[in-house]
Amino acid sequence: MFRSRRLLLLLLLMACRTSAPGQPGLQYPPYPDGVESSGGGYLIEDTVGGTNYGIEWVHTSAGTQLWFGRLVAQDPSGQAVWRLVDTLSPPAHDSTRRLIGGQCTAHGALDQEILALVDGEDAESLRTVFSAWRADRRSGRFMVLPPAGIVCVNEGYGG
């Protein structure tokens, strides 16, 4: 009896603990101290009545991160509230490379879960992919992808 109460108390404490900045389980906004939203990101909309997910670029003391969040609510003002499911620290890169998400194809099929670090060339289609990841909604994780066959749309081309 004592042992089961102790186990129950331990499980309750673990369930109620707050997550550290950038740790899965964190509910945001508000953002933790030392984390600032860059204002960039995109929504991965569910098309079959499930949950929407979002990818957001944030700045932390450790550098730029991508946060993969699941939409859990809306606050009284209508602002989305997210639960962090995974983080990704992309490789450091200079201004000749760009991180593109939601606008990439894999072997010709648009896939909004794909993010890619591409050459920032002046072309409609960005075909030089250095690194790629999938924001996998089933597992709630960023998964590394081989860059072969990935092409991203350059939204700023021609403008």
Write up this protein:
This protein has one helix and 13 strands, in the order H-E-E-E-E-E-E-E-E-E-E-E-E-E. The longest helix has 15 residues. A hairpin with a 2-residue loop joins strand 3 and strand 4. It folds into two domains: 69 residues; 57 residues, no CATH class. The N terminus is likely disordered. The radius of gyration is 18 Å and the shape is globular. With 159 residues, it is mainly beta. 9% of the residues lie in helices and 47% in strands. A five-stranded antiparallel β-sheet has the order 1-5-4-3-2, with no helix packed on it. Strands 6-9-11-12 form a four-stranded antiparallel β-sheet, with no helix packed on it.
Write a short abstract of this structure:
The chain is mainly β. The chain contains one helix and 13 strands, in the order H-E-E-E-E-E-E-E-E-E-E-E-E-E.
- Relative helix content: under 10%
Topology as a string of helices (H) and strands (E): HEEEEEEEEEEEEE
| Largest sheet: number of strands, sense, barrel closure | 5 strands, antiparallel
Give the strand content. Answer: over 45%
Query: What's the total helix number?
Result: 1
Instruction: Please report the distance between the alpha carbons of the first and last residues.
Output: 70 Å
- Mean pLDDT across the residues is 83
Main sheet strand line-up:
1-5-4-3-2
Shape: globular
Rg from alpha-carbon coordinates: 18 Å
Which structural class do you get from the secondary structure elements?
A: mainly beta
Low-confidence stretches: 1-19
Number of strands: 13
